[in-house]
């Protein structure tokens, strides 16, 4: 008989608990695309006033990752990192919209309902 894996094995893993905290919640991709990447808002975020509560006095901010850094060198090394490049790549994809979710549920134009409705009108026109 083999050993069985216990369920709920992530009890003491630190990253699971930290990721679930609302205190450490990061901005979602659609928020960054719609709000932060707008040229006016981006300029405001990159040139913020001094804020003693934020890391680096809020002077070193990565807009794509929505994250503050302590120093300019830390921000520059972040720009070269794989994490930042991956985030930029995902931000180039279009935003997930309500219409896309409805199409996935079968309610959009690509669903079978729309095709049958068109087919019924074609039959009615051909009988006339």
Counted beta strands: 2
The CA-CA distance between the termini, in Å, is 73 Å
Largest sheet: 2 strands, antiparallel
How is the largest sheet built, in terms of strand order?
A: 1-2
- What proportion of the residues form beta strands (DSSP E)? under 5%
Outline the low-pLDDT stretches.
none
What is the average of the pLDDT values?
Answer: 84
Task: Provide a compact summary of the structure.
This protein is mainly alpha-helical. The chain has helices spanning 14-20, 29-36, 39-46, 72-79, 82-91, 98-105, 112-127, and strands at residues 61-62, 67-68.
Top keywords for this entry?
single chain, 3% strand, flat, C2H2-type domain-containing protein, zinc-finger, metal-binding, 7 helices, 128 residues
Structure description:
One of its GO terms (cellular component) is cytoplasm. Residues 1-11 have a biased composition (Basic residues). This is C2H2-type domain-containing protein. One of its GO terms (biological process) is ribosome biogenesis. Strands 1-2 form a two-stranded antiparallel ribbon. It has helices at 14-20, 29-36, 39-46, 72-79, 82-91, 98-105, 112-127, and strands at 61-62, 67-68. The chain has 128 residues and is mainly alpha-helical. It is built from seven helices and two strands. The protein starts with 13 loop residues before the first helix and ends with a helix.
Secondary-structure map with pairings?
Layout: H1 14-20, H2 29-36, H3 39-46, E1 61-62, E2 67-68, H4 72-79, H5 82-91, H6 98-105, H7 112-127
């Amino acid at each position: 008989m083999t050993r069985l894996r216990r369920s709920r094995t992530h009890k003491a893993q630190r990253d699971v608990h930290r990721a679930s905290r609302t205190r450490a919640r990061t901005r979602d991709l659609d928020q960054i695309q719609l709000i932060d990447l707008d040229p006016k808002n981006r300029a405001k975020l990159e040139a913020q006033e001094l804020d003693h509560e934020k890391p680096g006095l809020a002077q070193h901010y990565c807009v794509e990752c929505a994250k503050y850094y302590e120093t300019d060198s830390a921000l520059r090394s972040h720009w070269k990192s794989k994490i930042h490049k991956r985030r930029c790549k995902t931000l180039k994809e279009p935003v997930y919209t309500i219409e896309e979710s409805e199409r996935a549920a079968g309610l959009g134009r690509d669903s079978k309902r729309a095709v049958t409705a068109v087919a019924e009108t074609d039959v009615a026109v051909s009988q006339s």
